Amino acid sequence: MTSRRTFISTGIAALTTHGLAQTPAATEPVIDIHQHMNYHKRADEHLLTHQEAMGITTTIILPAGTYVDRESTHHGKSNGLAAQCATTEAARDFAKAHPGAYLWAANEVTDLEGAPAAIEAWLKQGACMIGEQKFMVQCDSAESQKLYALAGEYNVPILLHFQHLTYNLGYDRFHTMLEKFPKTNFIGHAQAFWGNIDKNHDQKVNYPKGKITPGGITDRYLADYPNMYADMSAGSGLLALTRDEEHTTKFFERHQDKILYGSDCADHLGRGPGCQGAQTLAAIRKLAPSKAVERKILFENSRKLFRLG
Fold first, then answer.
1. Which of 271, 237, 92 is nearest to 161 (CA)?
2. Taking CA 104 as the corner, what is the angle to CA 98 and CA 110, rounded to the nearest 5 degrees?
3. Phi, psi of 61 (to 5 degrees)
4. What confidence tens digit (pLDDT) does each residue in 72-121 have?
5. Which of 143, 194, 204, 205 is buried most, with the most CB atoms less than 10 Å from its CB?
6. For the structural domain made of 4-305, what CATH number should be given?
């Protein structure tokens, strides 16, 4: 009997290999690991326009969990990833309607009873990742650990939104999870993750500015743990790139095999000053220490991590 891990690995490889072969000819493909459907009520046709305008060849849709009223969703205020995002079923159906160009992740509220079983059912159908986990739980909670184990069992990454006192609390303790689950690949994202590239980061500041001192918690996690990866998306990722450009180039050099491009952008056009995703692309291309490193961040690292052929 085919093992569950073999099933999911084979399914993803078949889907994405087909999709990469079908995308329009592009000398420099780009993988966006972080997008959402119905993001602040953005219509699907605008999502398609946005990704095409940015030159994205493969996009991963990250769904929300079930809409519920409980402490971990801030009594409903954080439902839909706090942005009215669609849930897993919609992400699956959208990806199936656009094979290859779009993939989908599976998600559920971390401490909801039955969350592991629900996510496992989606993984069996071909979800390529767990996330975006964006709920008010301790990052080392028993419920979180069940999902970390599940990700390792199915050989898919799990993407976590770290935000001080808001989502996935206790980032300074997360090294214990990296050690406990060495076969699970973790992708870090958001304010606490990117603020902590700075050794002198004030945890109460979500969007720090100014020069960066290397050696922060995130810098160490990326250096010390093979299973820690960085999602470059959102305003927090863009600010981390642009606040100290000299640091960014060196940071890219140090962690060139760990950084993944994601947009997490709710813009409709995919260009111009209102498109944070396009700005992040431009910053990566500007500040990468070499063309080879640029291509790793925009394509190769994600291709390898998600086994895209």
1. 237
2. 160
3. -90, 125
4. 999 999 999 999 999 999 999 999 999 989 999 999 999 999 999 999 99
5. 194
6. 3.20.20.140
Can you give the three-state secondary structure of the chain, one letter per residue?
A: CCCHHHHHHHHHHHHHHHHHHHCCCCCCCCEEEEECCCHHHCCHHHHHHHHHHHCCCEEEECCECCCCCCHHHCCCCCHHHHCCCCEHHHHHHHHHHCECCEEECECCCCCCCCHHHHHHHHHHCCCCCEEEECCCCECCCHHHHHHHHHHHHHCCCEEEECECCCECECHHHCHHHHHHCCCCCEEEECHHHHHCCCCCCCCCCCCCCCCCCCCCHHHHHHHHCCCEEEECCHHHHHHHHHCCHHHHHHHHHHCCCCEECCCCCCCCCCCCCCCHHHHHHHHHHHHCCCHHHHHHHHHHHHHHHCCCC
Structure tokens at 205: 């500041």
Reported pTM? 0.91
pLDDT tens, residue by residue, 36-63: 999 999 999 999 999 999 999 999 999 9
